[in-house]
What does this fold into?
Amino acid sequence: MNNGINKNRVTTANLLTAKQYGTGNWRTMLRSFALILFVTSLWSCAKDEEHKDDDEDDTIGSVYFEEDFEKMIWGGDYINQQPGVKGEFTRDDDNRYIIDESKPVAECGINTDGCPDFFALVSEAYKELRGISGWEGSKVYERPGYLKIGTESSRDAYIRTPPLDMIGEGSVNINVSVDLAIWGGSSQTLYVSVANGGISSVSQLEVTTRDSWTTREFRVLNATKETQIEIKSDPTQVGRFFLGHVKITKAD
It folds into this structure.
């Protein structure tokens, strides 16, 4: 018998009038309504779960990347104007530079680099030893506790972080903090760019110090796990700069 109620669609109006059809129908419809609410709740929770960060501790201030270059130990200390130490290199089977363990480590002058260009000349093994695997760059050299970027005549030197794979899925805003210094007489303007997703709040950083570190901070909007931060020398003026620390955290 059809009581005039569409059993495939339970509405509030149906429930308000269901008593006239008997207690049995009333209970059946209540159970149906409860089931609909339960299924809807499960679906809603599932959708919320899709948008959660992979890292449950991914709060404002969470560190996505940090490097202090403590594994860099060779080369003269230009920042503190102190001599350093440096080993000798030889070529491997791929014609890349590796440490020549037959030669002793010796003292070197303030202006001496600790190794040849990391990205053009040295081996992957040496980059791993110094903790710089995954980075990219041009004309990048070892100094004790930091990097030197550029040469006396270069205008195209740069350093680029590895991808920020700790971000996980989706995009976030990030804060970037870098410690910088310049070689005496070099351009005081460095340039910032973002690769593979994200928009930087700045395009330039001004740095005047040569015997101490200057900390500069900026934001990148909509960064992803593929994002890389690049700092490069002034293309209009020859010069060199130093990078001593990088820290990238989640912003609001």
Summary: The longest strand covers residues 172-182.
